[in-house]
C-alpha cells in the first residue's frame, strides 16, 4: 500500500487556553478528494490553519504526516515546500507587493528548498500565462499589488491560480466557495478539477453542500466540536443538506 | 536679549562659538552664546534636543587629500562633488547645465540655530543653473573625509521656467565623528518639474544636519525624497514654499533607523498664495533601540484659499525597543482650504507574513518583501530607472545590515 498523502492522528490543538481540535483522525490516500463539512465554529478553519502551521495555534497532542513525514516541527514555508498548499478563505491583500514578484518569489523559494534550479523568466511567464488563462486571471490583475482591489471572486481565482503554479501534493481549500456567485463558483471549480490528476490529494472544507456538486468528493467527513464524527460517500453531503447538523450535536460531548 | 538665567554652555557650544567668531559670524555666535544649542523647549527640536545629543563639535575640516569615493553610483548620472566643503572641478556639463560657485551661505535667514550656523560657516556653495529638459540625473556627492571634521557646505540651484530635472544629493565620508551642516536652496521656475532626492549614508559616528529650502513658482511640480540611512544622528529640515498658483509639492521622506541611531525629518511647508497643493508623506522603519522623528507643519497664509494639503507619517517598528515620534501641526489662516494630517504606527502585519510563508517564502525574505512593500509608495514614483534601482539598493542594504 502506498503512503497516504495526509495522515492526521489524534490531533489536539488550542488557541490560548481554548481547545479547538479535540482528537482529529483523518487519512487521505493519494489522488483522493475529501470534504469536511461542519457548522460555523466547529473548528474546520482551525484545522486548515494548524495544517499550514499558523503560529497562533498550539498542537498539544497527536501527529500530522505529509507523505509520511511529520510536519509538526516545520515552519509554514517548509510545509509549503514539502507540498502543502492552503487556499485561504480570506486571501490577504498586500499593498506594495507586486503580484508577479510574489509569484516568482514563491515558485523559486519552493524550487530552491527542493534543490531545484530557479525558473527562467520566460518559463515563469509562460507558466503564469497558462495558469491565468484557465482561471480568467488576466494580465491587468497580475499587474496589481497582491490581491489589492480584487473582488471576492478574483481573489479566489487568484488562489487557485497560485495552486496551479505551485503544484502541491496536498491542497487544502478553506471555504473556497464563500463569497462566490454561481458563475465564479463554476470557474473556480473548473480550475480545481483541472488539478485533479489522480496523484494530487485535496481537502475541501466547506459549510455548504453546493460546492460539492462542482468538486465531487470521494469521501465526506462531518466535523463537529473539534473532531470528525461521521464519514461517508458524497451522498452524506446531500443528507446533511437536507437534515442539517443537529443530529451530531450530542455526540461530540 | 539675555534671559534672566543664562544657559550653561557645553563643549560643543564653546567650539561652535569660536568657529563662528573666527568666520566673522558674530550675530550667530552671539545667538549660540545666549541660547545655546536648541533644546526640546524649542518646538522644532522637541524630540531632537541638540544640547543633549551633540556633546562635541570637531574642528573645521581641512581640504582633503584623499577621497573614499562616492557612496552610491548611479549609472549615467552627471556627478559633481563637494569634499570637506570644497567644490571640486567638474567634468564638462551636459547641455542646459551651468555649474558655478557662489560665496557664503545660501539659506534664507530664519529663527533657527542650524540655519544660522550654515550661513555663518559656509564659505562657498555649488551653484547650478538649469534650463530645458535635462535627461541625465545630476548627482551632487557631499563627502567629509579624513579625521573628524565640522563641515558647512551648500548648493544653490535655479531651475528655469518649463524645465525638468532630477537631482540627487548624497552624503557620506570617512568613519569619524564628523558634523555636517548641509544646505540646499532650490528655486523652481514656472511649470518646472523637479525631483530632488537626498540620501544620508554617513558613518555611525557622524552627525548629519541638512536644511532644504524650496521655492515654487506658478505651476511648478516638486517631488522630494529624503532618505536617512547612515549617520548616527541625522536631521533634515525641509522648508518648501508654494509661491505661485498651481504649484504642487510631494514632500516625502524615509527614516531607516537601527540600534543606537536617531533620525529626524522635520518639515514646514508654507502655502503662500491661493490654489496650491502639497502631499507630505513620510515613513519611518526602526529596529533595535533607536528613535525616529517626523514633524510636519503646514502653514496656510491668510489669502491662500483653495489650498489642498495632507500630511501623513507611517511608522513600522521591527523591534519592541524602538521609539517613533510623530508631530503634525496645522497653522491655517485662510478659511476655504482642505488640510489634514494622519499618523500610524505598527509592526509587520502577522496575517500578511503568514500568507507569504504559506506560499513557501522563507521568513527573512517574506519580511523583506513586506518592508519593501511598505516603502514602495516612496520609491516607485522615482521614474529614473537607474536612480530607482540605486535607492532600492540602499533600502536592501539597510535591510541586510544590522
Automatic annotation (TrEMBL), chain A:
The keyword Nucleotide-binding applies. Keywords: ATP-binding, Nucleotide-binding. The keyword ATP-binding applies. Residues 6-250 form the ABC transporter domain. GO terms for molecular function: ATP binding; ATP hydrolysis activity. InterPro entries: AAA+_ATPase, ABC_transporter-like_ATP-bd, FeS-cluster_ATPase_SufC, P-loop_NTPase. It comes from the Bacteria. Belongs to the ABC transporter superfamily. Ycf16 family. NCBIfam families: sufC. PANTHER family: ABC TRANSPORTER I FAMILY MEMBER 6, CHLOROPLASTIC (PTHR43204). This is Cysteine desulfurase. It comes from Devosia soli. The gene is sufC.
Automatic annotation (TrEMBL), chain B:
InterPro entries: Fe-S_cluster_assembly_SufBD (IPR055346), SUF_FeS_clus_asmbl_SufBD_core (IPR000825), SUF_FeS_clus_asmbl_SufBD_sf (IPR037284), SUF_FeS_clus_asmbl_SufD (IPR011542). It comes from the Bacteria. GO terms for biological process: iron-sulfur cluster assembly. Residues 144-374 form the SUF system FeS cluster assembly SufBD core domain. This is SUF system FeS cluster assembly SufBD core domain-containing protein. It comes from Devosia soli.
Amino acid at each position: 500500500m502506498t503512503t497516504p498523502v495526509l495522515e492526521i492522528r489524534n490531533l489536539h490543538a488550542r488557541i490560548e487556553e481554548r481547545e479547538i481540535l479535540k482528537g482529529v483522525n483523518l487519512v487521505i490516500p493519494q489522488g483522493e478528494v475529501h470534504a469536511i463539512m461542519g457548522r460555523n465554529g466547529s473548528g474546520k478553519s482551525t484545522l486548515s490553519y494548524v495544517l499550514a502551521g499558523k503560529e497562533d495555534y498550539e498542537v498539544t497532542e497527536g501527529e500530522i504526516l505529509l507523505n509520511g513525514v511529520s510536519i509538526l516541527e516545520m515552519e509554514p514555508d517548509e510545509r509549503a515546500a514539502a507540498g502543502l498548499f492552503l487556499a485561504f478563505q480570506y486571501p490577504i491583500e498586500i499593498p506594495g507587493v507586486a503580484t508577479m514578484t510574489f509569484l516568482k518569489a514563491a515558485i523559486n523559494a519552493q524550487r530552491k528548498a527542493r534543490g531545484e534550479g530557479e525558473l527562467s523568466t520566460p518559463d515563469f511567464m509562460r507558466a503564469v500565462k497558462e495558469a491565468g488563462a484557465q482561471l480568467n486571471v488576466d494580465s491587468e490583475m497580475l499587474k496589481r499589488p497582491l490581491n489589492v482591489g480584487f473582488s471576492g471572486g478574483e481573489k479566489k481565482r487568484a488562489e487557485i491560480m497560485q495552486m496551479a503554479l505551485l503544484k502541491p501534493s496536498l491542497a487544502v481549500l478553506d471555504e473556497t466557495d464563500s463569497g462566490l456567485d454561481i458563475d465564479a463558483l463554476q470557474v473556480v471549480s473548473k480550475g480545481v478539477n483541472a488539478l485533479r490528476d489522480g496523484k494530487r490529494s485535496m481537502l475541501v472544507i466547506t459549510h455548504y453542500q453546493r460546492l460539492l456538486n462542482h468538486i465531487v468528493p470521494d469521501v465526506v467527513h462531518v466535523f463537529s466540536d473539534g473532531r470528525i464524527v461521521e464519514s461517508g460517500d458524497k451522498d452524506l453531503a446531500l443528507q446533511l443538506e437536507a437534515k442539517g447538523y443537529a443530529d451530531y450535536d450530542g455526540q461530540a460531548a | 536679549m539675555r534671559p534672566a538665567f543664562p544657559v550653561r554652555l557645553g563643549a560643543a557650544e564653546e567650539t561652535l562659538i569660536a568657529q563662528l567668531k573666527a568666520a566673522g559670524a558674530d550675530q550667530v555666535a552671539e545667538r549660540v552664546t545666549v541660547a545655546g544649542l536648541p533644546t526640546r523647549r524649542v518646538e522644532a527640536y522637541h524630540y531632537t534636543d541638540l544640547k543633549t545629543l551633540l556633546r562635541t563639535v570637531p574642528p573645521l575640516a581641512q581640504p582633503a587629500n584623499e577621497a573614499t569615493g562616492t557612496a552610491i553610483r548611479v549609472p549615467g548620472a552627471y556627478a559633481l562633488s563637494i569634499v570637506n566643503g570644497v567644490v571640486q572641478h567638474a567634468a564638462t556639463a551636459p547641455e542646459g547645465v551651468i555649474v558655478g560657485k557662489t560665496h557664503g551661505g545660501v539659506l534664507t535667514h530664519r529663527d533657527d540655530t542650524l540655519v544660522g550656523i550654515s550661513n555663518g560657516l559656509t564659505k562657498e556653495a555649488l551653484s547650478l543653473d538649469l534650463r530645458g529638459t535635462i535627461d541625465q540625473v545630476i548627482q551632487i556627492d557631499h563627502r567629509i573625509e579624513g579625521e573628524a571634521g565640522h563641515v558647512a557646505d551648500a548648493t544653490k540651484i535655479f531651475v528655469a521656467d518649463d524645465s525638468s530635472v532630477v537631482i540627487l544629493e548624497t552624503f557620506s565620508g570617512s568613519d569619524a565623528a564628523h558634523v555636517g551642516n548641509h544646505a540646499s536652496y532650490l528655486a523652481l521656475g514656472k511649470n518646472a518639474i523637479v525631483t530632488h532626492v537626498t540620501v544620508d549614508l554617513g558613518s555611525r559616528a557622524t552627525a548629519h544636519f541638512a536644511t532644504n529650502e524650496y521655492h515654487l513658482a506658478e505651476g511648478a511640480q516638486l517631488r522630494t525624497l529624503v532618505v536617512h540611512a547612515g549617520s548616527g544622528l541625522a536631521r533634515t529640515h525641509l522648508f518648501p514654499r508654494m509661491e505661485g498658483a498651481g504649484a504642487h509639492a510631494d514632500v516625502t521622506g524615509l527614516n531607516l533607523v537601527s540600534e543606537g541611531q536617531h533620525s529626524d525629518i522635520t518639515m514646514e511647508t508654507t502655502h503662500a498664495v491661493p490654489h496650491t497643493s502639497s502631499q507630505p508623506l513620510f515613513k519611518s522603519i526602526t529596529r533595535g533601540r533607536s528613535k525616529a522623528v517626523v514633524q510636519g507643519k503646514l502653514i496656510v497664509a491668510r489669502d491662500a484659499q483653495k489650498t489642498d494639503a495632507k500630511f501623513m507619517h507611517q511608522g513600522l517598528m521591527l523591534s519592541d525597543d524602538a521609539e517613533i515620534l510623530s508631530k503634525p501641526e496645522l497653522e491655517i489662516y485662510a478659511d476655504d482650504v482642505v488640510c489634514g494630517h494622519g499618523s500610524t504606527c505598527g509592526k509587520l502585519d502577522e496575517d500578511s507574513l503568514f500568507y507569504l510563508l504559506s506560499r513557501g517564502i522563507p521568513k527573512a525574505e517574506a519580511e523583506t518583501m513586506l518592508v519593501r512593500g511598505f516603502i514602495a509608495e516612496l520609491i516607485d514614483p522615482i521614474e529614473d530607472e537607474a536612480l530607482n534601482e540605486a535607492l532600492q539598493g540602499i533600502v536592501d542594504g539597510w535591510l541586510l545590515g544590522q
